Every structure is written in C-alpha cells, then in structure tokens.
Amino acid sequence: MTTAPHRPAPVGREELLSRLERVLHTRGRALLTGPAGVGKTEVALAEAARAEARGETVLWLATLPSDREIPGAAAAALVASVAATTTWAGLGATRTEPAGGPAGAAPAAGTLAAPALTTPGVLTSGAFDDLPGPQRTAVAMLCREAPIETGGWDPIALRLGIARILRALTCRGPVLLVVDGVQYVDPDSADLLRFALHLAPPALRVVAVETPEPYGETGEAYREPRPAPYREPRTTPYGDPRTAPNRDAHRGEEARTAHLWVPSEADVLLVPPLHADEIAELLIHHRLPSRMAGRIHRASGGNPRLALAVGRSLADARTPVHHAEALTLSGRARDLARQLLGAAPPPVRETLLLAALALRPSAALIRRAGRPNAEADLAAAERADLVSLAEDGSVTFTAGLLPSTLVHDACWAERSAGHAALAEVVDDPVEAVRHRALATDSPDEELAAEVAAAAELARRRGNSALAAELALLAAESTPGRNGTRRIERLVHAAEEAARAARADLAMRAATDLLARDAEPADRVRARLAVLDTAGQGLTGLDEMYVHAMEDSEGDTALRAAVQLRLAVKYVLADGDPHRSRTAAVESARLAASVGDPRTEAQALTVRARMERALGSPDAEAVLARARALELAERPLGIRNAAQILTIRHALFDDRLTDARDELNALLPLVQRRGPVEDAIELFRTLAEIGSRNGSCPAALAHAGQSLALTLEAGLSPGPAWYALALAETAGGSFVRAASYARRSVQASEEEGDRVFLSRSRYALGRVQLINGDVAAALETLRRVQADERAQSTVDPSMLRWHEELAEALLAHDAGDEALALLSEVRPVAERLGRHTVLLGCDRAYALCLAAEGRTDEAAELLTRTAESFARAGLPLEHGRALIALARVERRRRRRSAAQGALQAAATVFERAGAVPWLALVSETPAGEGPGPAGGGEEAPPALSALTEAELRLARLVSAGASNQEAAAKLYLSVKTVEARLTRIYQKLDVRSRAQLATALRP
User: Fold this and answer.
1) Is 217's pLDDT higher than 60?
2) Taking 70 as the threshold, does the pLDDT of residue 99 lie above it?
3) What are the C-alpha distances in Å from 46 to residues 104, 180, 271, 309, 386?
4) Crossing angle of the two packed helices 483-499 and 464-476, in degrees rounded to 10
5) What would the DSSP string read from start to end of 946-969?
6) Nearest to residue 933, comparing CAs of 761, 805, 769?
7) CA nearest to 909, candidates 732, 660, 676
8) Rounded CA gap, 303 and 313, in Å?
9) I need a labelling partner for 109 at 20 to 30 A (CA). Which of 79, 636, 842, 858 fits?
10) 331 — alpha (psi -120 to 50), left (phi > 0) or beta?
C-alpha cells in the first residue's frame, strides 16, 4: 500500500473518471469491474492522483492471488500501510521498549508483549498507541508482531480495532482507500473490512477494483473430482483447530464474493474496452506505430493490455509490417490471449474452438455440431468476456486474437474434425463447401472446382470478403499436378482480394504464385493486386514495382497498368509530381494504343491531378478527356477516378455546392455496392467540404464515418485523421483538432505518405496559429512550405498554407518576410484564377498594413474581404476576416466598431455551428480581437504603435520576466529580445521596466 503517484487520466477514460468522482461524492463507495487488461487499475490510479492533488490521504491495497488462502493477509497489509504512510505527531523513528512494560518484563494478561526491535514495526511505530489494550493485542496478532495464543485473537476486539484505526485516520482529513484486486481479499479480511467500512465516517471513501471470476460458479461442473490432499491440523486465529474444516468450507464460499459492501447498481462502474480511435491514441502515447490502429483494435477487441502487446510485436518486428501482411504476434501477445483462454474449463474451450472455426457462429449451430451444452459453455465464456451473445444466439469474439489463438494452438486433427462437423450442419451451401475444403488436408480438383463456384456465388451475393477467401481456398485446394489451373486460380484470388480490400489475402495469393513457375503476365497481375490493396503505404513495396516493370516487358496493356501504379507511387511516396505526370502520360499513351479506355481514363486522371498541382492550364482539359472516357467505360470504382477528381477540383475552387451535390448523389450507390475505399474517400471529401462551407456538424459526422470505416478496413488512418482535424477546427474543439493533426502527421510519417504529411502539418499549423501558439505554428508551417516546394506544388488552392504562414510571420515580427511570401503567391493565384486564395491573401495583407500603422487602409480592405467571403459562401472565412477587422479597429481605438465586428463574427459562427470559433469570440473582451496576438485585456491607446509581437514581449517583461525567460517563452534568442525591447522603449518613450509597466496600465 503506497501513496499513489500523480499521473494523467488514462486514454479514453475522462468520462469514466468523471462518473467515478460523482459516485464517490454521492455514495462514498465505487466498484470498478471489467475483464483483465481493460485498464481498471489505471482508472483507479488516476482517481488516486486526483485525490492526492486535493490533499487527501490515499491508501492503496494491492492483493495477490495467494492472499486469498492466507487468513487476515489483506487486513494486516492495510494496518501495516496505515503506519507506514502516515506521519503521526510526536513519534520517534524507532521504539525499542516493549509496549507492555519495561524491557524484559513479562506482559500482563490481556496486554501486548512486543519484542525488542532495532527497526520500527507496526505497533512500535506508535501509530496505534491510542487503541485500547485488547484491540492493540488483536491487531498485533494479526500483523504477527505478537504470538497467536492458543485461543486465537479476540474477533470482536480486532473488528473494533480496525474500525478505530480507519476512523482515527479520517480525523486528520479525507481518506481514499483503493483496494486493487478485491476478488483476492481473503474471507477473514473481507469480514473485518466490511465491519470497519460499515462504521466508517463519510470522510472515508473506497474504490474497489474487481476482475470477475466467470468460472467460479460454473467451473465446478467441469472440474474433475480429485482427492483432497492431507494437511496437518493447524491452529487458526479463531482457536480450536477442529473448527478449521468448517471455516475453510465457509471461506471457499466467500472467496468468490469478497465484496467489502453490498454494491448497488449505482456503485458498480463497468470499465469498457477502448474504441478504435482511442486505441490509436494509446499507441501514440506509448510511442508505438499507429498506422495499424484499426487492425490492432480488431485483434485486441479494445483491450488496452492486448493492444499494447500487439503494438509492441509490430514495433519489435525485424522489418516493418505492411498493411498487406499478417500481423506479427510475439509470444507476449499470444501468451496474453492464452491467459484469457486458459481459465476456461476444457469443455468451454472445445465449444469456443468450434465458434472460431465457423463463419457465422451461433449457439444453435455449435450445439448441432456436437456440443449439446453449447448454450451453457457460451454463457460461461460471455461472463469471462471472451465472447458476446446476441438475442438470436449469434456469437462474436470480443477480440480477434482469441479465435486466431484458439485455431493456432489446435492440432490439425481438432481443426479438421471441427470443420467436418460444421460442414454437416450449416444451412448455406457456400459455407458447407468452405468447411469441407478446410477439413481436407489433401488437394482435390473436384473439391477445388466446387470452392471456385462457391466463390463466384459469394461475389454475386455482394460478399466480396468471403469471395476473396474462397477464391484463395480454391487455389490452395488445387492439386500440384494441375499447375496451370492453380496459377490461374491464384491470380483470380489476388484480384478478388484487391476488389475486397483484403490486403492479407492478396499478399498470400501473390506469395504462393511468385514461388511457382508462373508466366510473367500472371506475376504482374498478382503484384498489381498487392499494390492496389496497399492504400497509403507504398514505400515498402519498391521491389514489387521493379519486378512488375521487368515482367511487363513486351506486354503493352500490362506495362500501361504498371506505369499507372508508378504514377501514383511517385506522388504519394516520393513526392515527385513531375515523374508522376510523366508516368501517367506514358500509361495513357500505352493504354490508348491497345484500346484500353479504363486504364487510359485512370492515367489521364492522375495526369490531371499533377497538372493542377504544377499549375498547368491544361489540367481541366485533361480531366475532361478522362471524364469522357469514363462515361463510355464505367470505372470499377470512384476512388482515383475522374469523377471524384472533378469533385475535388470543385472543392479546391470553392464551388462547394456543386461538389456537395455530386457527392450526395454518389453516396447511396457507393454505400450499397462500392468498395470500402470509395466510401472512405466520399466521407472524407464531404468532411472537407463541410469544414469549408460552414456545415460544421455534418463535417464532424462525415469525418467520423470516414475514420470508422478506415479503422475497420485496417487501412492507414492518416487521411481520416486529417479530415477530422479540419472538422474539429471548424465545429468541434481546437484541442482535439491539434491532437488529430498530430496523429495524422505521425501516421503519414510512418507510411511515408508525402501528400498527407504535408496536409496534416498544414492542419496542425493552422490550429496552432488560431490558438495563439505563434512559435509552434511558424515552425510547423515552415515545414509545410518546405514540403510543398520540395514537391514542386504551384497551385495555391490545393493547400492554403500561404496566408497562414504569412500571418504567423507577421505575428513573429517578420513582416517583410510575410509581405514577400504574399507577393510571391498573389501573381500565381491571379494567373490561375484562384479568387478565394486572393481573398485569403488580402486578409493577411491587411494585417501587414495594420502592423505598418496603415490601419485605415487595413480596415477598409478587411471590410471588403469579409463581404467577399460571405458572397463566396465561406462563413468561417467570413467570420475570421471579421475577427481580423476587430483587431484593426482596436488599433484605431474604435472600441465600438471592434465590438460590432466581433458580434457579427459571433453571429456567423453560431449560424454555422462553429463551436470553437464562437467560444473564441465570446471569451474575447470588448475591443480585443482573438488570434495569435490576443493579449487578454484592453491595450492602452499609447500601445497602438507597437506590433503584436512587441506587445506580447512588453507584457511579459512588465510582468517580471527576465530577458532570458521571455526569450524562452517566445522561442526567440536573447539578442532578438534585447533588440525588440529597445524598439519598444523608443516607441513608448520609456527608459526602464518600471516605466514600461506603468505605460501598459489601462
């Protein structure tokens, strides 16, 4: 038992912690319960840290499984810890004299005789000197600081002694007692603590942490009868050893329900598993790769301990694990799954194995397959949180690692028997064929043909994932002597897996095929399938591209397909739009020469994207050619198609109504029949549109759907996190926006995705600037500038970082550099006709004018800019221009005009549902414009000559900061601070810090 250290709230547990505090405040008792590894102890530690921060005494009692068999173990630990963690006034460090009298004297009857000690014990600490003699004697026996007499300790005295100790502790202030592992508290201690807590005052609050023992009651039915081992009679603390068997039997009944009070529903708080997004945050918190967060969540079922074990398995892998590869699971991850499964009695494990083998497991199916007690077994497994049972009897494992471990650890004979039994009872012919194939160890052409036919049937039903699995199973069931047929089926399986976005199956099929004597064309098709399932993670697949180019030599159609994939790689992984455009041009030419309009349309789409990024006026004409080909030859999907690029161009041009309407028309079709990547792309684009046109609640909803689908599909969450960062900036929370942007940066770096790395840094820098963290924003946006220039991006509408960087530079007292940046981007925007980009530049330029003292011109320009943003249907930009206008009006000492601009901005933000922006202007005092230069109070008129950067420094110095402290706070050098202070003194005509402080007073 120790005083709990300070620690932040565990990931995803803020709401649970708030509920816990409410329960403790109203009821004084709370029971945290949930499966092993779900994070109950972390929640209790966080609550203990909060209590300690409030000045409360925190006692932590952590039990072990062995404690349950030791009478009084937990109570003794509690008593010892009270003495160890509490400072009692007037007590020395050691006591060498027995409590019952002078050294060497025999103790009187009913008193405690403590041996001479050189180090303090529980009783010698003096913590319990106020206890009456019989109670001290009983407590000493409990703590083994006095011999247990033949009659044992006095149970009533011991009960009263424990209660008195806790009551005395609460007299010193509030106390929080945390019992971690209450299920291991021995029955004797549970009885003592129940009595003590019953008499305890309200100042003693208790948190009990319990991991339920699901097989405690049902396990008896499965346990083999064993003869009880012989044990010597022992003297119990309660006296006559002849009563020990009865007490032990009673203890066995209580051991499973060692509650310290009778909990009501209001006391019990279930600690749930984490959501996929929270698992991603947990991985980042522990410096583990987050790009596999979706797959890790599926494997762990949201159990933090399992998720971290899987994450560490990936981090410890010799080579980075690609999305198309199976998760590398170390012994630690498997062992944790085995621990969860190991507690299950053998009959339950046999039932669970059948559930793991079934495609759609249910209690009825498993019962018909030979498990007559299936319902009881599954109910026991559900209490253990291994599975969940629906009302219709369907079974779902709580973590993907559990069924995979069951199958992994089962021998071939067990798996074969299970599949054979299931094949006889399933009511779907497709599933029956699957089980028959999996029950057979020898290839069979007739069976392989049946499986191939079942795969085609599954595809027609729209179950692409099952079709991909069966296509691969058909290939693997094909005898080796039919080598050509097996290769054909492997190619088909790889391509079916690509359509189903099953990267793991595509890689399995391709690996099998590439190990055989396949034709070059077949090898290319298999490799292309793997590349098509790679998502954003293309950097680890260079060898695939090299071999695909070699094998496509002489085959024009395949070479066109390979060049198309290279064009995508060059921009995503290499950040080279010039090479991407060249490859796209070559792909389109080759495809046209062999009459392949589908590949030609895709290549022209990639080329149009690159032409736009490079600022070419040919972009729209190329895109129109691609759209015409698509109308004649319907594409397989909309992702990377001309249709979606046309929508994105409308988004870049702020033709938001057109973009939204086209997407809304596509969405129902994609949700019904399209691949998951298409739905992700649509929801992400809808989120970007909503973040731009002021549909803030819709933007948050669409971004959330994009992330959920991304994590479910096991794809990299970087793009979805970017969309969420934009949506949160518009209508959620600036803090969450920064968090999502940082996650997107990390995931994009892990994937080597240059495009979304630049975008996510832009989103992060933008929200840092809005929050007033100018130094961090400047650093982030400079990296965006470097990224975009390295990628030769010319068109400023695709990522609007220029205006943000200009404002950050101005706030950092680099006005000349801000003006130079605006002068650089403005001619490009004018040449390309990017009207709303020019409006953003006008907003930043107006702030530059204000910094130069040309406030009248600045106010006039901002007024026009705000009106233009409103006409363009960009409410958030409209409101932001009004905020800038309020800042300028403050400089002009027009308090009423500044207040009017802020009120107008608040109206705009409220109508758009822009919650964080509304809070930003609502918290701003009259006359003070929020933003990177906001200081929190009205500036005196004399300070209007100062720039925003000078004003921030002046306030810091006047508050007592030294030059070194101000430099550290503002991320400047000391020399820069000194030079800036000199200018401030000159402008305000002051000569000392004292005079500066006087000048700053309103």
Assistant:
1) no
2) no
3) 48, 13, 14, 22, 27
4) 160
5) S-HHHHHHHHHHHTT--HHHHHHH
6) 769
7) 732
8) 15
9) 79
10) alpha
Q: Are 332 and 355 in contact (CB under 8 A)?
A: no
Q: Which residue reads 């507690």 in tokens? A: 343
Closest CA to 863 of 843, 844, 893, 845: 843
pTM > 0.85: yes or no:
no
Q: What is the pLDDT of residues 2-25, one digit of tens each?
A: 434 445 778 889 899 999 999 999
Q: Name the CA radius of gyration of the chain, rounded.
A: 35
Count how many Cα atoms sit within 13 Å of the Cα of residue 175 in the half-sphere of its side chain: 21
Query: At 104, is the pLDDT very low, low, confident or very high (cuts 50, 70, 90)?
Result: very low
Angle between helices 597-613 and 642-652 (to 10 degrees): 20
**How does 10-30 read in b/e, with b if 16+ C-beta sit within 10 Å?**
bbbbeebbeebeebbeebbbb
Provide the H-helix boundaries in 441-596: 445-461, 464-476, 483-499, 503-514, 520-532, 542-551, 556-572, 577-593
Taking CB atoms within 8 Å and a gap of at least 24, the contacts of 812-818 are 812/774, 812/775, 812/778, 812/949, 813/947, 813/949, 813/950, 813/980, 815/848, 815/851, 815/852, 815/947, 818/844, 818/848
Is-contact 633 622, C-beta < 8 A? no
Q: Which residues of 629-649 are buried (b: 16+ CB within 10 A; e: fewer)?
A: bbeeeebeebbbbbbbbbbbb
Which residue matches tokens 């890689």?
507
With tokens 């913590």, the residue in question is: 127
Cα–chain center distance at 671: 25
Which of 174, 171, 165 has the alpha carbon at shortest distance from 193?
165
> DSSP 3-state assignment of 552?
coil
CA separation for the pair 825, 793 (Å, rounded): 12
Cα distance between residue 323 and residue 309, in whole Å: 18
- Looking at the predicted structure, is the pLDDT value of residue 392 above 50? yes
Do β-strands 395-397 and 387-389 pair in parallel, antiparallel, or remain unpaired? antiparallel
Which residue is associated with the tokens 């595809």? 459
CA angle 704–706–711, rounded 5-degree value: 95
pLDDT tens column, 548-565: 999 999 899 999 999 999
* 3-class state of residue 396 by DSSP: strand
- Using the predicted structure, report yes or no on whether residue 111 has a pLDDT greater than 90: no
* Per-residue model confidence as pLDDT tens digits over 634-643: 655 677 788 8
Reduced to 3 states (helix: H, G, I; strand: E, B; else coil), residue 358 is coil
Q: How confident is the model at residue 426 (pLDDT cuts 50, 70, 90)?
A: very high
Backbone angles phi, psi at 33, to 5 degrees: -135, 155
Q: How long, in residues, is the chain?
A: 1002
Residue 392 CB: number of other CB atoms within 10 A?
8
Measured CA to CA, the distance from residue 326 to residue 333 in angstroms comes to: 14
Spatial distance between the Cα atoms of 889 and 209, rounded to a whole number of angstroms: 58
Asked whether the beta carbons of 564 and 548 are under 8 A apart, the reply is no
- How are beta strands 175-180 and 387-389 bridged, if at all? unpaired
**Which residue in 49, 63, 47, 40 sits closest to 4, CA to CA?**
49
Q: 3-state class of 209 per DSSP?
A: strand
Q: What is the Cβ-side half-sphere exposure of residue 484, based on CA atoms within 13 angstroms?
A: 0
What is the pLDDT confidence band of residue 498, given thresholds at 50, 70 and 90?
confident
- Distance of alpha carbon 701 from alpha carbon 732, whole angstroms: 11
Q: Find residue 62's DSSP bridge partners.
A: 180
Q: Quote the CA–CA distance of 722 and 743 in Å, as a whole number.
A: 8
3-state secondary structure of 479: coil
Calpha distance 225→297 (Å, rounded): 40
Q: Are strands 387-389 and 268-270 parallel, antiparallel or unpaired?
A: unpaired
Residue 353 CB neighbour total at 10 angstroms: 22
Is residue 189 within 8 Å of residue 75, measured between CB atoms? yes
Give the span between the Cα atoms of 615 and 833, in whole angstroms.
Answer: 11
